[in-house]
Amino acid sequence: MFQRNIKVLQNVNYLLSKNGSFLRHSSTASTEKVTQNYCLNLVRQYDKENFLCTLLLKNPERRHALAIRAFNVEIARITGTVSDDKIGQLRLKFWEDTIGRLHRSDNPDHVPEQPVVQELKVAIDAAKLTKRYFQRLISSRLNANLRFVTTKQLEEYAEHSVSSVLYLLLEVHGVRNVHADHAASHLGKAQGIVNLLRSIPRQERRNVVPVPQELLIAHGVSQERVLRNKRDDKGVEEVVFQLAGLANQHLEKARALWGSVPKEARPVFLPAVTTGRFLERLRRVNFHLTDSSLLQSDAMLPLAIYWGNFRGKI
Fold this sequence. Notes:
Layout: H1 2-10, H2 28-46, H3 48-55, H4 61-76, H5 78-81, H6 85-102, H7 115-127, H8 131-140, H9 151-172, H10 178-199, H11 213-218, H12 223-228, H13 234-258, H14 271-284, H15 292-295, H16 301-311
Helix pairs in contact: 2-3, 2-4, 2-7, 3-4, 4-7, 4-9, 6-8, 8-9, 9-10, 10-13, 10-14, 13-14, 14-16
């Protein structure tokens, strides 16, 4: 079933014109297919691991989940695709205003003809998604340089930038309870910290790393040393170990609470599989972030995600 689902999705024809603008169709069904395929392709290209997890959701939840993840990709890519921070802020303002319009009841049909926006409208109308979570996702991207003084600030960033997505996915499944939210909060923090660790070897702006200053000071490590990440640098190893340990603590708390999550929403927590596998791979290379094995994709990940879903374990 898993392979069949992937094959079906991978054989979708993306209806784009040569210049990248969207072809217009008189049929509503054709237009919906274009917008759905756009979101699917966007998530598959820029958020592959979460894409694999989303494939195992059932429709219509899968469609809405892809819209939410596509929105997250759109705003996450802004800081990396613009050279001027003011332009980035303007683009984020567009999304902020758009989310506001999508949640208005007085003029719901007049929204930008942009595929992610169109799919978000369907998801918001169907699941009554909370506006606050979208706003938190947008505001988290204003911290373009990812400068953190304390680990608490890092956890708050992970909460806003990752847990908010999980809260929305729970709402897509009609789940709104404190136990599920608590588990999502911890998983989001774990995944967010891991995402930042994984970003360090790929830093394009070499003047800053997303490591809390209090950890660097405690171990006498500079940002330059973290970027160089020499194998025999025990100080850097200890910093990475502490961040990985913090992520693992949140992951274990999420797993402990997972049993109280309603059964229909448990696939939302499949990113715990990807997070746990990376932490284990990191441990095996003694927390050396630039080890070649870590920079390669996890070939067994699709099977691990499927097996976790099949067994009902994260």
